[in-house]
Amino acid sequence: MKQSKLFTKTKKDAPKDEVSLNAQLLIKAGFIDKLTAGVYTYLPLGLEVLKKVQKIIRKEMNKIDGQEILMPALSPKENWEQTGRWNEIDVLFKVKSQTDKEYALGATHEEIVTPLIGQFINSYKDLPIAVYQIQDKFRDELRAKSGILRGREFNMKDLYSFHADQDDFEKYYEKSKQAYFNIFQACGLDAKIVEADGGSFSKFSHEFQVFTEYGEDNIKYCEKCGFAQNEEICDLKTGDKCPNCNEKIEEKKAIEVGNIFPLKTKFSDAFKLSYSDKNGKKQPVIMGCYGIGPSRVVGSIVEVHHDEKGIIWPENVAPFKVHLISLGNSDKIIAAADDLYKKFVQAGIEVLYDDRDEPAGVKFNDSDLIGIPYRIVISEKTLAKDSIELKPRAEEKAEIIKISKIITKF
Amino acid sequence: MKQSKLFTKTKKDAPKDEVSLNAQLLIKAGFIDKLTAGVYTYLPLGLEVLKKVQKIIRKEMNKIDGQEILMPALSPKENWEQTGRWNEIDVLFKVKSQTDKEYALGATHEEIVTPLIGQFINSYKDLPIAVYQIQDKFRDELRAKSGILRGREFNMKDLYSFHADQDDFEKYYEKSKQAYFNIFQACGLDAKIVEADGGSFSKFSHEFQVFTEYGEDNIKYCEKCGFAQNEEICDLKTGDKCPNCNEKIEEKKAIEVGNIFPLKTKFSDAFKLSYSDKNGKKQPVIMGCYGIGPSRVVGSIVEVHHDEKGIIWPENVAPFKVHLISLGNSDKIIAAADDLYKKFVQAGIEVLYDDRDEPAGVKFNDSDLIGIPYRIVISEKTLAKDSIELKPRAEEKAEIIKISKIITKF
Q1: Which end of chain A has fewer CB atoms at under 10 Å, N or C?
Q2: Residues 6+ away with beta carbon under 8 Å from B339
Q3: Facing residues of A378 across strands?
Q4: A43: nearest CB among B43, B69, B75
């Protein structure tokens, strides 16, 4: 894409009420816009990143036999009353229609997916089933100060699994862990698995936490053996001995990027979701749920991958792979840059081409702020050697490469 | 995909309160589920169709320089008060937060996109701009009896264009018409352009209407010259003379599948959206908006393309291209069908493989109901001739084709 055609521009400042680092950088670089507290618009660059994260997630969910569906945000009050969560979930947005019908805006979808799946389960032969969706959720947060890490409206991938017995559930739960690690790795996030509160019916759930000083969560962690518990459930203090290996426990700030949760029969019981076993006997279905917020993942990537100049996108999730920059506006430079741009497009390499008539300083600052992995500069100086200058965003050093060799290099 | 793995099943009946033909067929065939009046879940087959329609739309919007963004559903009351539509739009769902902040659930997005674009427009050089999104909208409809043609929550593509003058707007408006015709043609819909109410500020807007006896709209139409007006704005009666060509006017029932609307400066004025012209003088921006509901398009396709046995998907939007059906469960048949299935998958041809242990009647009925364009049957009879039976869903006659030739045929 030509940058002169991109309707967004970088900004000197984020809104004053925006205190989170992720949203400040994403707003200044033109990836998102803040509509109101906790509510953001994805601009072309931001939507591109969001879609890449969604694609990575989708691929891994399909690999663990997830079937994609799309449930609505509007859901009838009756469904939430059946589990008692209409009054229990304090962040549930509630809506009333002209005809006084009441709905919740989905903050999660167990109340919808459980009766849905119930329509299609009769016998043990129908199990296991795993379904997922990528869809926008709503939470009436009292405070929304973490940018796209905790929005009032946010994008979510939620998978729900249905099993005939605990053993089958546990095998699937382990598979989902591996899928989650694959996702975070592909997104450039080093996520640790952490034990967390399992609610009233399971000892533990598991969170995937990315350690960073800007995190909202506190994790008690043993570097040696990997023991990790959310401080909500952990009595250990910094310096205490690890219960597994006697090494010293550290405390880490972290961002929760995913969560997997054994649901046992909590929702199956509420919605009478059962199946007939081999002997024709009714048995309750065992469920699990598995969440990752793609928008939260985007925010986490920014929290982890940035420097004082701007964002540094990992290649898999970058809005473009290459940022091609022309310096100077002689016919020769424009022709060479236009030509190279066409070659990238033809080769299927995603390229943002800064063809604007702006000074070098503006173009370099914008490029560092936007954070595309590879910057390629064409100028009088490089053209004199039939070359371009290539600099990875994450590195200090640039290298001079012949124009004829650049496409094959990518 | 193997049909034995698909968690949905076809149903004998749709819910009793579901009176629309599109939703009845889509529910029975397992494409959607009705959560409550006007609110539906897209099941795997239905989501696949919806995504194909969205992909067709996206391609045409990109071709007319639309830049994709994603605006939120939650939008602050203040934005709607600025245009007077907080109280004017009777179908606006309103939500109040714990802290008494009021939001509308987006029924349309002029109130959000206009100030957004205002952040990026200074001079005439920044124009024109066209942005679009594909996103779920909400309307508090008094009655929701048309299935996915008119839901309380529904998928929408809305594009907004911004121009320096009326002339530039009109050129873009004409380009958008062609893009819309391309979209409907690719979706198998024969849409006519119809003049409709232009609101208080334009003489006409334009609707794209598909003639069908199940339509909600009434169109006064001249077959000879193409004159067409929505009866809302037309005084002509059936049999009256066409004002253009003197031919007789007919009345047609129709479904509105798209709408394009000159907005002049209505929203630019409300949000003070202006630019500096070549002389440095402030000028208001001219706007247009352009809507297509992908979920409504899916419903319209079903209303138009079906018979008494079920849906007949046009190829471009079908969930799969081929429905491969094995009849009988001898090792020989299973091996031959499994082998052909693998070949289709390897060739990148989308195939649903009915590998279930069900009688021929059940499989044929399901196949007709689901409506995949090509049915391929492998049975003892066809295998005796090293062949399969190929039948297009839309035709009566089947043909016998050698197995060795079937992949190249597709």
Answers
A1: C
A2: none
A3: A326
A4: B69
